[in-house]
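Whether sequence alone determines local backbone shape is best considered at the level of individual chains. When preparing material for the folding task, we compiled for one chain both its residues and its backbone structure tokens. No coordinates are needed to read the tokens, only the vocabulary itself. For completeness, the protein is quoted in full, as a sequence line and a line of structure tokens:
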Amino acid sequence: LRFSAKKVFLVVSSEQKEWTITVDTLKQDWTVSSSRTIKINADDLYTVFDSTLFENDQRITLSATKWLRLHAFTFWD
């Protein structure tokens, strides 16, 4: 996902508890600069990217546990 924002949110739902999403933040050359895992334990809005600075052309990848439903991204600047 390429975007320009300070924060990225994702609406997630699942029929089961304790699923995960791994978020890798990427450098401009698409190599991983950081990684974190988000535990999904309820149908909710989750923060998948959080920065204090607005930057253009941010890049992340998401890896979700099988059977998670990823509904909508929202962005905040």
The first strand starts at residue 2 and ends at 13. The mean pLDDT is 94.
